[in-house]
Structures are given as C-alpha cells and as structure tokens.
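Late entry, evening session. Most of the bench is empty. Finally got around to the prediction I had been postponing all week. Sequence below, unchanged from the version circulated by S.P.
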Amino acid sequence: MSNNTGPAPSGSPDLTMFFAVPDSAKALAYYEDVFGAEVIDRFDAPDGSVAHAEIALAGGRFQLSEPMPDFGIVGPPAEGNSFTMTLWTADVDAIFEKAVATGSTVLTPLGDSFSGDRMGVVRCPFGIRWCIARHDRDVSKEEIDAAVAAMSEQG
C-alpha cells in the first residue's frame, strides 16, 4: 500500500459529485451498461445495500449510495432535480437512444441546440437528470445571447 496523501485520494479529482439513489446496486449496473461507467470502488452495508461506491465515467468521477435519511442523505425528488449530470460523448445519439430504451424518461428530446451542441435530457430510472451531449461547433457569445433573447420573447 502506498502512502499517497493530498487533498483527495490518489486518482480522485478534488471535486467529486455524490448523490443517493434507491436501488443503488441496480443504478451502478445501469450506469455501466448504458453510459459505459466503471465502478472503481464499492462498499456494501451488512444488508447488502450499497453504502458507498465511486464510479469513473468519461474522464470524471462521481459517488453514490443508498439514501440514508438518518444522516440527511436522501434520494432524488419524485419530480425534477436540483442538479444535472452532463455526459459529453461522441456517441450522443446511440447513448441517448439506449438510455430511453432501457427505462429513462425523455425530458428534452435529442436535438441540435443554439449553443452548438447536440443534446437531450433524460431522467434515469433512479431519478437522476442526465444531459447527454456532444459539442459540434463553437458559437459566439453574441449568437448565444441573441438566441436566448429570442427564446425569452417567445415565452
């Protein structure tokens, strides 16, 4: 065992997202199958539920566990989310279609955006909001500002 010390454990970014989802073991399998995630570490509670897991995905990492209300760790709300996981991928169409085919709910259909990105938003079966996107072209700030203003006028 090495003696690596620092702000974060060796190999981990200094900022890592953590969230709780019911059926975390199924969520881990889903994220591996649909998004190509890799489980880096997993600790199970005595009852077999996921107490903590770390996942690598698209050059980033995130952590999850079962909800633990006694510790103030709760699952996602029935509707909406206060955050979105964004997965940038060259295979945007295939991954979006697989996510929908395996139980994700479409929140924003896949399409080309004024921002130069091809993107769509789903809510996975475990309640997390995912934006699946590919950056196709750079767009100037002026073009984006004009597009946002036009959308605001349309209501």
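Two things to note before I forget:
Strands lie at 17-20, 38-44, 50-57, 60-65, 85-88, 105-112, 117-123, 129-135.
Residues 54 and 63 are 4 Å apart (CA to CA).
Will write this up properly tomorrow.
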